[in-house]
Amino acid sequence: MLPLLLVLKLSSIPRYGLKPNDAILAEERHIPMYTEMIEKYEVDYTAGGACQNAMRVAQGIGKRPNTFAFMGCIGKDKFGKILESKAKEAGVLVSYQYHETLPTGTCAVVITDQGAKRSLCANLSAANCFSREHLDSPFNQSIIKNAKFFYITSFFLTVSPPSIMQIAKHACENNKPFTMNLSAPFLCQFFKEPMMAAMPYVDILFGNDQEAVTFAKENNFDTENVEEIAVRICNLPKENKKIPRIVIITQGHDPVVSVTGGKVTKFPATSIKAEDIVDTNGAGDAFVGGFLSQYVEHKPLDVCIKCGIYAATEVIKQSGCTLPENAEFVM
């Protein structure tokens, strides 16, 4: 997904049926919410999109411009220009598909409990119109050919599964790590078929505990134990036998669970005072961005995970998925 975030902080979630710590796609009943937020409340605007967030964070920590590239679909409007400028400012190489009529996607983010909980409702609009044909342009083929690693969120399952499978198979055939994120519980429920079609190609899978439990339920694992779930996912069928699968599950303030080769390793999360938490939205994206910033440099797994924890810890102290200007990961 590639939406502009409308961030609203409230003591409680208003109507429209939003749930704490959840992410959903907008239905017809949600559409008036965007105008209501702008007209009745003071909102912050943040360049978003889960994958683009991760790329901006990875680029911000990695420093070298154009290390990370991003593709998505936006509208030819002011919000699209904001998204593009933010990505380029961060040093990300972008190759957008531009929709002629639909506006750039937007996502309402309601933050409650002093920043501890967030609810997302995305109106994809142009972001929902990315087509596989965009991958076929000579410029984009060059990006794909030269890329050494790939990352796709499961949000993209709602947009273009054929694009996912094209990249997944390219990665497998060329022995390039293909990484993916469970992204939201509803995706594990309602987009299970395309998710499971891509799963054999996934070399690194990210997710949080809620997503993992939902995934387990939908796949009849008969357990809600996060460590057991991670092991079960790690042992699912896999196409590329040359790259051992890694499963990484975050658990908020509880330890990060990592599984590879059947071995479970836990990494403690960094403790933060409640008053220092500004916005938990984007913490998962930041974790992935931090992880990938080290992974593409072939750093050890523990360093990658610790950088992910560092990035997530720094981001939740800010509004939106943004690193502080002086952010620097040091082991």
TrEMBL record:
<dbReference type="InterPro" id="IPR011611">
    <property type="entry name" value="PfkB_dom"/>
</dbReference>
<dbReference type="InterPro" id="IPR001805">
    <property type="entry name" value="Adenokinase"/>
</dbReference>
<comment type="function">
    <text>ATP dependent phosphorylation of adenosine and other related nucleoside analogs to monophosphate derivatives.</text>
</comment>
<keyword id="KW-0418">Kinase</keyword>
<keyword id="KW-0067">ATP-binding</keyword>
<dbReference type="InterPro" id="IPR029056">
    <property type="entry name" value="Ribokinase-like"/>
</dbReference>
<dbReference type="GO" id="GO:0005829">
    <property type="term" value="C:cytosol"/>
</dbReference>
<dbReference type="GO" id="GO:0044209">
    <property type="term" value="P:AMP salvage"/>
</dbReference>
<dbReference type="GO" id="GO:0006166">
    <property type="term" value="P:purine ribonucleoside salvage"/>
</dbReference>
<keyword id="KW-0808">Transferase</keyword>
<dbReference type="GO" id="GO:0005524">
    <property type="term" value="F:ATP binding"/>
</dbReference>
<dbReference type="Pfam" id="PF00294">
    <property type="entry name" value="PfkB"/>
</dbReference>
<dbReference type="GO" id="GO:0004001">
    <property type="term" value="F:adenosine kinase activity"/>
</dbReference>
<feature type="domain" description="Carbohydrate kinase PfkB">
    <location>
        <begin position="12"/>
        <end position="324"/>
    </location>
</feature>
<comment type="subunit">
    <text>Monomer.</text>
</comment>
<keyword id="KW-0460">Magnesium</keyword>
<comment type="similarity">
    <text>Belongs to the carbohydrate kinase PfkB family.</text>
</comment>
<keyword id="KW-0539">Nucleus</keyword>
<comment type="pathway">
    <text>Purine metabolism; AMP biosynthesis via salvage pathway; AMP from adenosine: step 1/1.</text>
</comment>
<dbReference type="InterPro" id="IPR002173">
    <property type="entry name" value="Carboh/pur_kinase_PfkB_CS"/>
</dbReference>
<keyword id="KW-0660">Purine salvage</keyword>
<dbReference type="GO" id="GO:0005634">
    <property type="term" value="C:nucleus"/>
</dbReference>
<keyword id="KW-0547">Nucleotide-binding</keyword>
<protein>
    <recommendedName>
        <fullName>Adenosine kinase</fullName>
        <ecNumber>2.7.1.20</ecNumber>
    </recommendedName>
</protein>
<feature type="active site" description="Proton acceptor">
    <location>
        <position position="285"/>
    </location>
</feature>
<dbReference type="GO" id="GO:0006144">
    <property type="term" value="P:purine nucleobase metabolic process"/>
</dbReference>
